[in-house]
Design a protein that fits this description.
It is a single chain. The chain has 410 residues and is of the alpha/beta class. It contains 12 helices and 12 strands. It starts with 5 loop residues before the first strand and ends with a helix. 46% of the residues are buried.
Length: 410
């Protein structure tokens, strides 16, 4: 537990790794390296620039890229905006067609909707019921006017994986720019940009145990690939993103990338085991189902539907378990998740669904405690709704619950 709460919302944000915190503090106070990396007339600036470039190499190493292909931003949302708008204003050359999907993050969807108002045409691919966008769908959607395909590597609500390697091969053959939203994938899956033919990749520091407020955009070295800056000023980052570089945050993201590369296999193995245990325990709850394709997914993101239980009611009843109903960026909205609706779920099922996400600091005790509390809360909420006799099945579950609870405690 963290401060008395079981944290199962790693897809929203991750705690900063203590090693990252330790490294960041060296770049803050008056005795640290606090200089402006753009100040090249004294040692304060030189040391800051050296730290920034080391972090750039660390992030590049995580995705097998060149350091000069990494552009610092304030986070994945800015990286997505820079990638999509930046290419739209320089690469289109009369081609006005973009391909994306209906279950992308709002940063992609809202940016595409903005461009539609500017006269661009956007095709929103619909996933299958499991949340998969296939390479064949992408290929069939391409037009002579298509200049950009933008898709996420791992879905932030259901954890499904997109075959970015196959899609990259398709776009490369057509001379179409391929942008990947990798915010959710970097801490969960390897991404080798020598094998995956992506041109632009958006990254986030706080999704891989680094600080908030820092991200990066990978821009493949290609003389024909140009992106227009969205923030103008001092011409930092090769003219693509102006603004004083936050050295401490950049150092934090660099260290987080180094640790992610070092621990990815071990983290993935632990998450697999914990996710299997958690799903197995939740499956004992009557009528529970899981949204998304549980074969082609990262194990750490689990989206469960509890019929007859409103997700908001479940979360309010369990304030000591951190979970989510949809994306953190839209959790204040009363509308059902656009991702779940995009899968073909009706609004009622969407409102009964909760996302759990497991990470580096999740323990087996966390999993057992959360499963027990969720099971009891679902039972109580169904009883309050006078639905415990639903289809005659719920009585059987009620009788088994005390034994189930005891078995977890044992």
């Amino acid at each position: 537990m963290m401060n008395g709460v079981v944290y199962l919302d790693y897809a929203a944000t991750t705690p900063v790794d203590p090693k990252v915190v330790s490294r960041m503090t060296r770049y803050l106070g008056p005795t640290g390296v606090f200089g402006n990396a753009a100040s090249r007339s004294h040692s304060f600036g030189w040391k800051a620039e050296e730290a920034v470039e080391k972090a750039r190499r660390q992030v590049a190493s995580l995705v097998n890229a060149r350091p000069e292909e990494i552009i610092w931003t304030s986070g994945a949302t800015e990286s997505i905006n820079l990638a999509i708008k930046g290419v739209a204003h320089t690469r289109s050359h009369g081609r006005k067609h973009i391909v994306t999907s209906s279950i992308e993050h709002r940063a992609v969807l809202d940016t595409c909707e903005y461009l539609e108002r500017q006269g661009f045409q956007v095709t929103y691919l619909k996933p299958d019921f499991g949340g998969i966008i296939s390479p064949e769908q992408v290929e069939n959607a391409l037009l002579p006017e298509t200049f950009l395909v933008s898709l996420m590597h791992v879905n932030n609500e259901i954890g499904t994986i997109t075959d970015v390697e196959a899609i990259g091969a398709i776009t490369r053959a057509r001379d179409i720019v391929f942008h990947i939203d990798a915010a959710q994938s970097l801490a969960r899956l390897p991404l080798d940009l020598q094998n995956v033919k992506a041109d632009l990749v958006s990254m986030s520091g706080h999704k891989m145990y680094g600080p908030k407020g820092i991200g990066a955009l990978y821009v493949r070295y290609n003389p024909r690939l140009r992106i227009q800056a969205q923030i103008h000023g001092g011409g930092h980052e090769g003219g693509m993103r102006s603004g004083t570089l936050p050295t401490h945050q950049i150092v934090g993201m660099g260290e987080a990338a180094r640790l992610t590369r070092l621990h990815l296999e071990a983290d993935t193995g632990r998450t697999n085991r914990l996710a299997e245990r958690f799903i197995g325990l939740l499956q004992r709850i009557d009528l529970v189902t899981f949204n998304g394709n549980r074969l082609y997914c990262v194990p750490g993101i689990i989206n469960a539907c509890f019929p007859m239980v409103e997700s908001e009611s479940l979360m309010m009843r369990l304030p000591n378990i951190a979970m989510a109903a949809g994306s953190a960026c839209t959790s204040a909205a009363v509308e059902p998740s656009h991702v779940l609706i995009g899968l073909g779920l009706d609004e009622e099922k969407a409102h009964h669904s909760v996302r759990f996400s497991i990470g580096r600091y999740t323990t087996e005790e966390d999993i057992d405690y959360a499963a027990k509390e969720i099971t009891l809360a679902v039972r109580e909420l169904r009883e309050i709704s006078s639905l415990e006799n639903y289809d005659g099945d719920w009585l059987d579950v009620k009788e088994s619950l005390p034994n189930y609870t005891a078995s977890i405690q044992d």
